[in-house]
Amino acid sequence: LSPAVHIQTSRALMVISLLLGFFGIIVSVVGMKCTKVGEEDPVTKSRIAVAGGVLFILSGLCTLAAVSLYATRVTYEFFKESAVPINARYEFGSALFIGWGAASLTVLGGSLLCCSCPAKEQRGQQYYRQSQPSTAREYV
């Protein structure tokens, strides 16, 4: 017996969410200013970080859609008139609340990464190295 369509759809959305989150982690690590991977230009690094943020937002939205789809189906089945007694029907479990929390935090994290885009006045500027202080002192 195959599971119902809403369960298969939720599974597919969760797998897509996991893949988007995985690639979001990789792209975000490359886009961090503290890493030496990729470009040295800070504008390019911040654009890569924004791309990672977009992947995280998409991952969170897929998770939110999957969990909400399943919750909608559980609610529909619970209130549907049926011969199944109320104590034998499905109810919201802790996994649904964990899924909603995870989706919210993933979207929030992706939004924070998207805020790392440089302002327009900073786009042309480069970071300059500060000259090293001299250690030799002149004694008179």
What's a concise summary of this model?
The chain has 140 residues and is mainly α. The chain has helices at residues 5-31, 42-79, 94-114.
Features of the shown structure:
single chain; 140 residues; mainly alpha; Butyryl-CoA Dehydrogenase, subunit A, domain 3; 3 helices; 0% strand
Question: What would you say this structure looks like, in words?
Answer:
Keywords: Cell junction, Cell membrane, Membrane, Tight junction, Transmembrane, Transmembrane helix. InterPro entries: Claudin, PMP22/EMP/MP20/Claudin. It is a multi-pass membrane protein. It is a single chain. The chain is mostly helical and 140 residues long. The protein has one domain: Up-down Bundle (Butyryl-CoA Dehydrogenase, subunit A, domain 3). 61% of the residues lie in helices and 0% in strands. The protein contains three helices and no strands. The chain has helices at 5-31, 42-79, 94-114. Helix 1 packs antiparallel against helix 2 (42-79).
